[in-house]
């Protein structure tokens, strides 16, 4: 699987480089009686099984090479920029090839010409009887559905492959899928045929035809599915499908005697005789053009290391960073419901204590206490409690005040330094920023509850303003908690952390009716919340409303106040014109519904805004100001869109040039 993952990555590089090129996906399925009907007559009746498998493998290999040669050199699709293929073996042992062809920009097939490259119709028996018979024999799906409800493709009463397709008079091209090829009904020029399969006789029309290329199908005379990949998404899907790996069989080993424990399952490779012969004769499983090679370039001490089966476990354990196991144990204490932590500690404490031998100069007597001190520090840093509350031994921390590292981090500031930052920055605030600063600071220092939302487009000095607010509140020896929605943005704020790590917000909030944060009363985090006077949350529009509602319930429970955010002054900052909450597979309505504006808390929010673009003001550039106004108009929805609601005219934002000099 590692090899397939690397091959997939290599071929994805080709995809990124040829993103403007057009792609075809071809799947060639091998059946000996279809491809080489004469081969059985040529074989000796006394041919050994090894020779038979060798013969079948060579047939498929030569057939696949022939197909690639026809596509590449005879240019039936046009000039190629790249190609790749991969061999897959079905459970019945027959191989087939997945092939991707990239056409150059000059050879792109226009929508009106797709029907000549890919057909999904039955040929006319009068004008092309040969192709008619090949399509009838190889390219008809089923029958399934009402004609054959027990067909292998039937799942829950419908065809899992989507047959029969709909009649379509003209080709339709979607945004993220294969095109819907022309499939004319018999009333509009389409053809029909009668298909006899064992005891089933079906009348078939174009709805049951698997797409194919007439030229390749005539040359190969086998099942050969050809699709036009018209989007990056469809090409990525095909790349993933091509490199999905070998089949696996799942089995279990049991004894005749009854056992009262869970059976062990083992995943093992499923290799048929034909695939075994293919690999024994060292035939290629995949090839590509142009070649892609990984350069052996790495950061210092970041070179690739290979482990053999014999030393993999030993090396991975011996080279593990210090305290990896203790960190895992601390995470399990906080986030996992362990039945008996003391038993778990007793069983594995010797492994965790080994990390501290070098720190204590080989003194084994103090390693257990050192490990407990380390674990308790980690637990309290994540908002937990002392280890004794979890049923674990009490570490001897003679010089450690048990108030929690996170509490110390939020309270131990240099007051004079914060006052200097506040005084210096306040003199640089513009009028809009000063109004926001004074309004929120007054609410925080007077212990007046309220939620403020600062609507601020990019470039208006949001981060500078937040830093000033934090410094002003901390200079008064008050506690303010600074959080953001993303880890990268957290590095821009003094003592900033993500909202999830700060308030222990559950990752999946949709499974609970009224979710809350995992904050226990009596912990250092709960104490920190009760003593803080303000909370600042940056990049709030990209956070799901369920996070704010869960935080609201938790703060109310901890402070004992049934007020918005537990009566703590809260400043939400961000720009709804930028990234909104991510809803997997959601529609526009789902995304809007997940925003803070759709929350029950929005009616309690006081809106604030900044509109002066400080980047433009400080640069003094007129063109930069015009461009900033255009971006603001775009975000406000003031620029008209074209017929496609997802696009705007390019000329609204500039002109297209041919060279970098222009």
Automatic annotation (TrEMBL):
Residue ranges of every copy of the DNA helicase Pif1-like DEAD-box helicase domain listed in the record: 429-642
Basic and acidic residues biased stretches: 31-72
Required cofactor(s): Mg(2+)
Membrane-spanning intervals of the chain: none
Key words of the record: ATP-binding, DNA damage, DNA recombination, DNA repair, Helicase, Hydrolase, Nucleotide-binding
Residues covered by region (Disordered): 25-72
Domain of life: Eukaryota
Catalytic activity: ATP + H2O = ADP + phosphate + H(+)
Gene Ontology MF term list: 5'-3' DNA helicase activity; ATP binding; hydrolase activity
Record-listed E.C. numbers: 5.6.2.3
Stated name of the protein: ATP-dependent DNA helicase
